[in-house]
Amino acid sequence: MALCRGGCPAKVASDGDDGSRWIWGCRWWKLERLESQWVLTRWEWVSGDLGYGVHSGVVGARLGFGIVMVIRKVGLLAMAVDFGGIPVWLVHEWVATKPTTSDLQSIYGSGKVLPTITIILPFKPAKVEAVKKQLSRIHPEIILFLHKIKRESIRENRGGSYTTDSVSAISISSEMNLISLRSHGANSRIVLLSVQEEADATENTCRYYIWRQVFPVKPDNMVDARKDIKELVISLAFPFGKRLKRGTSSVGIFAFLPTAMVTNFPFVVQADFILSSSRQNILMDNKWNMGILDNVPSCFVSALTTFMKSSAIDEFFSIYRVFDFLLVRESPYKELNRVRQSIKSMLQKECIVPYESFLNDKMVFCEPTNAIRILAKFRKILSHIKEHNVCLSDISSQGKFVLHDSVDHKEYDEIWNFLGVPSVDDCNEWYGKCIQAYHLMFKASTRVYVKLLCFLANNWKHFPLRSLNSIPLVKYITWNGETKACSVLEIKREKLKIHLVWEAEQHAWLSKWNLEMG
Q1: Which end of the chain is more exposed for a tag (fewer CB within 10 A), N or C?
Q2: So what's the pLDDT on residue 395?
Q3: Would you say residue 296 lies in a domain?
C-alpha cells in the first residue's frame, strides 16, 4: 500500500499490453473468461457513511487469489488482475498516468519483492495523517481469516523519499497445514502472526491454531440476504500467547471485518455474520446468525479434540495450554452464554481430562465427570507405594480416575469447575473404597503405612464413617506371627484387643514371647 502526496502516476485501460486484465470499478463486476479461478463469485453492495455518494463494498471472491478486502469509493476504483505473477494494483480512475512496475519498485526499494496487491491512494497533504491514523487501526488478526493474504504493509511517499512500513506491517511469518478432515469438511493450520507498528519498532508475534469447518445451511436459518448460500464456513482462531490487537479490548467476533463485540471467549469466531447498521455488532435475533451460533459448539469441540490428538501438541505447544481455551468466564451476551453452555455439555462427553495411569508417564484422558481430585498428601502416599514397584494400574477400575498431578493445581480450579470435575471435598468416599479395594495397607511399606494412618487420622472428620469404620486399617501380629488387619469398628466392639508397643525392643520381645506362649 502506498500513500502519495499531491497525486500519483496512474492510468486505467481495459486491457494491458502485458496480458493482464483490467476491470473498471462498478457495481457488478464480471470476468469474460469463465474459468473457476477467474470467476468473481460475490459482490456485496453496502451503503457507506462517508458522504457525497461514497459507498463501501466487500469483495469476497475467488478472483485468482481468493481475496476478501474492503474497497472505498467503488465508483472511482479499478483493479488490474494478472494471473502470470505480475503484481496487481488499485488506482483512482482519474489519475493521469498509468503506473508501472518500476514506479512501485521505487516505493518498495530495489531488490524487494513487490506485494501481490497494491492500493495506491493519492491524498492532499492535510489528509495524510488522518488516513495513516485510520489505517493504523486495522486489526492484525483479520489476516488470519484471509487465506491468500500473507502480509499487509503501509508505505508513504514524502516528496520522493520513502519510509519503510511507516505506519504498520502485519504478516504471517510462518504457516503449517495441520489436519484436513474431508468427512467433516474441516481443516486446520498453525500460523505465526507478526505485527510491527513502526519501521524501527520491535516485532510482536503470536502463534495461532486456526480451525475452519463447513456446515450445511438449515432451512430454518435461510434468509433472503443469503438465499443462494448453501453452506456456512466457520473459522475459530486460538491464540497461544498474548493476542495481537489494537487498543485494550479483545474483539471476539469477526464477520469479514472485526466487530466491536467483546465476548469473554478465549478464542475468536469468524463467519459470514449479518451485521447491524453500525457494523459494530452482529444481529443476535437474525435467523442466519442464529444458525451460525448453533454450529459454533460443534465446531469448537471438533477443533479442541482434534488438536489434542495431533502431533502439534508435542511439537509446538503444551497440552496444558489447551485448557486455557475453555470458556470459564460468562459472556455479556445471553445468546453467547447459550453457546457456552452447549459447549460445556458437549465437552462433558469427551475424553479430554488427563488422569494418572500409575503405570507409566504417558498421559491418558477420561470424561470430566469420571475424574476426581484428591488431597495432595494422599497422592504422595500413592507415589511412595508406586516407587516400591507396587502396581497401581487397577486403581481406576472402579470407574473413577485420579486427575493428573500436572493439572491438579489451584490455577486450574476454574477449568475443572467449568467441566464438572468433582472437587476435593466431593470425593471423600473414594479414599475408603480405594484403600479397601487395592489393599493399600498391605502393599505399603511400614513407613508409608504409618504415613497413611497419620493421613487418615488428620482427615478423619472429613471422611464418611461408613467408608472407613469397616475397612481393615489396623495391622497386628497374631499369636503365631502372622500379620493381619482389623477394622476400627471391630476394635470398638471389643471383638479384638490390640496392644500398642512403641519401643522397638519391647515390640520384638513381645512378638517373640507371643510365638512362644501361643
Answers
A1: C
A2: 77
A3: yes
| Residues 104, 27: Cα–Cα separation, whole Å | 28
Residues 164 and 247 in one domain: yes
Question: What is the b/e burial string over 59-85, where b = at least 16 CB atoms within 10 angstroms of the residue's CB?
Answer: bbbebbeebbbebebbeebbbbbbbee
Q: Give me the helices (H) in 189-318, please.
A: 287-309, 312-315
The residue type at 257: L
Q: Are strands 151-153 and 169-181 parallel, antiparallel or unpaired?
A: antiparallel
Per the DSSP assignment, residues forming a β-bridge with 5 are: 123
The grid coordinates of residue 322 equal 489447551
Are residues 115 and 165 both part of a single domain? no
Identify whether the C-beta of residue 166 lies closer than 8 Å to the C-beta of residue 1: no
- Strand-pair category, 371-372 with 401-402: parallel
> Can you give 380-395 as a three-state secondary structure string?
HHHHHHHHCCCCCHHH
User: Among 87, 102, 135, which residue terminates a domain?
Assistant: 135
pLDDT value at position 470?
81
Let me know if 432 is exposed, middle or buried by CB neighbors in 10 A (0-12, 13-18, 19+).
buried
How many angstroms separate the CA atoms of 430 and 277, rounded? 57
Cell numbers representing residue 112 in the block: 524487494
C-alpha 109 chain-centroid distance:
38
Same domain, 127 and 162: no
Would you say 22 and 79 are in contact if contact means Cβ atoms under 8 Å apart? yes
d(CA 195, CA 245): 9
The type of residue at 453 is L
Amino acid, res. 288: W
Q: Residue 379 and residue 402: Cα distance in Å, rounded? A: 9
Asked if 176 and 280 sit in the same domain, the reply is yes
Encoded amino acid at 376, one letter? A
Mean pLDDT score of the chain: 75
- Identify whether residues 242 and 300 lie together within a single domain: yes
What's the CA gap between 13 and 499, in Å, rounded? Answer: 107
Look at the chain and report how many structural domains it folds into.
2
Q: How far is Cα 120 from Cα 8, in angstroms, rounded to an integer?
A: 8
pLDDT-based confidence at 87, cuts 50/70/90? low
What are the φ and ψ backbone dihedral angles of 70, each rounded to 5 degrees? -100, 135
- The answer to whether residues 211 and 185 touch, using CB atoms and an 8 Å cutoff, is no
Measured between alpha carbons, how far is residue 454 from residues 181, 263, 425 in Å? 54, 48, 19
Residue 249 shares a structural domain with residue 306: yes
Mean pLDDT within 106-127: 74
- According to the model, what pLDDT value does residue 327 have? 95
Do the Cβ atoms of 336 and 293 come closer than 8 Å?
Answer: yes
Residues 167 and 263 in one domain: yes
Q: Judge whether 126 and 242 are in contact, CB under 8 Å.
A: no
* Burial of 516 per CB tally in 10 Å (0-12, 13-18, 19+): exposed
Query: Which element (helix H / strand E) includes 443?
Result: helix 440-443
| Domain interval for residue 87 | 1-135
Same domain, 125 and 187: no
